[in-house]
Amino acid sequence: MKYDIYAQSKILAIFMKDNGMLNISQDITSSIEYSSTATEILMKIRFILKKIDMNDKRFSVDEINLIKEILNEINKNLK
């Protein structure tokens, strides 16, 4: 089964919203909804996720792993 970056990113956006990071949540959602091409979406999401502080205590291990997983999949797709 193919990894669904968009679906996983939407799940991450919900986690961000629940952790009080509404701006990041909205940025992820907007990237998916308002970009013209798949490449543009992936590049925007990658840019957003790379700015996240992985040491932030508001994130669970599962959330950090999801961020890393999405970034890995994006990098595979953009090569």
UniProtKB/TrEMBL annotation:
The protein's name: Uncharacterized protein
Organism: Photorhabdus khanii
